[in-house]
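Many introductory courses stop at the sequence. We go one step further.
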Amino acid sequence: MEPIQESMADDGPPRPPSAAAPMTPARTRQMLPPKGACWYCEKPLDNVRRFCDKECADAFDEEKEYTR
């Protein structure tokens, strides 16, 4: 019986993570300056947080995708 060879797609040499990788939503969010209010719903916040909760952060990312 012969060994089975699994075929794997060869996309060339592996790229380092920083080589022209698209920005992830979390990284994009971290670049926003804290403004004292949620970037999505404008609810008042402290001067550290950018979003009041995960739903607003996810909604902001989704809206950003559609407005590119």
